[in-house]
Write a structure and sequence with these properties.
single chain
Length: 180
């Protein structure tokens, strides 16, 4: 078991159970998956850039990404239906908790002029979305050959309540700069 997985099962779950007064431990909010995605657009046509992005995403996440394809043609952007426009990785269980631990303890503190995460990053389904434009925060990547695309990290939870998910992520140690 990962450190964050043990932290959730032994401490965080109990804290949330007491704070919100759930009748069952199955009602406690839980992180179900973490989705890391990147948009490549027309740069995906070059196999060298596509292969580099695949390798970078594989290095960061620990598993092979899948291709996202255009659903329809957009002539203004030169995109044809079925062409590769991005990459996507879905992390669950042990890999999810390992990435979450690295995100909180290693990646976020390396962001230049970091002042904390905003409560406004929650979407209407109470999932947390984080955009990372600077790839130099990932020490696993080769700094010389970095591409210009960034990553979107989406943390999908079981609960649809913003406040419950905020406190769940706060218990994990997310550095929020404001409260709900």
């Amino acid at each position: 078991m990962n450190n964050f997985q043990i932290l959730y099962t032994k401490i965080i779950k109990q804290n949330l159970l007491k704070k919100f007064g759930y009748k069952s431990s199955y009602q406690v909010p839980k992180i179900e998956k973490i989705v890391i995605s990147t948009a490549l657009g027309l740069r995906a046509e070059k196999s060298s850039i596509l292969n580099k992005e695949i390798e970078d995403l594989r290095t960061i996440s620990g598993q092979h990404p899948i291709h996202t394809k255009a659903k329809k043609s957009i002539s203004e952007f030169g995109i044809k239906k079925g062409s590769i426009v991005g990459l996507l990785v879905t992390l669950r269980r042990e890999k999810m908790y390992a990435f979450l631990e690295k995100l909180i303890k290693l990646y976020l503190p390396r962001i230049r002029d970091f002042k904390g995460l905003s409560f406004k990053h929650f979407d209407k389904n109470a999932n947390f979305n984080l955009g990372i434009s600077d790839k130099t925060i990932f020490p696993e990547l080769d700094y010389i050959n970095l591409t210009k695309s960034g990553y979107t990290v989406t943390i999908v939870t079981r609960s649809n309540s913003l406040h419950e998910n905020y406190f769940l992520l706060k218990e994990f140690g997310f550095p929020f700069n404001n409260s709900p």
